[in-house]
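During the reporting period, we have paired protein sequences with C-alpha cells. One record among many follows, to show the layout:
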Amino acid sequence: MIVLIKVICIVLAIAIIALVLLQQGKGSDLGSAFGGGSSNSMFGALGPSDFLGKLTYALVALWLVLTMALAYIYKNQNSTEIFDISEQETSVLEVPTDEVPVE
C-alpha cells in the first residue's frame, strides 16, 4: 500500500512539473522576464481558465491528499518507542525528595 502511494505521488509530481512548464503565462514576452509584468498574479486576475490550469489544480490537490495519507500511515505504523530506558537508568533518574542533602 505504501509503495503504491509513493509511486503515485512520484508520477503526480512529475506530471505537475510538466504541466506547469507547459502553461503559458499572460506576460510571456521578454519584458516580463525582467519584472515588467509584476502587477499580474501568477495565473492572471481570474485564475486559470484553461484546461491545463484546472488539471494542474486537480493534480496538486490529489498529490496533497495522497501525501497527507502517506504521512498518516507512517505515523500510525511507527508508534513504538525508539529509546528503551532500562530499570537501572530509571532508578538513577528517580531521586527521593527526603534524601536530598540540605546545605
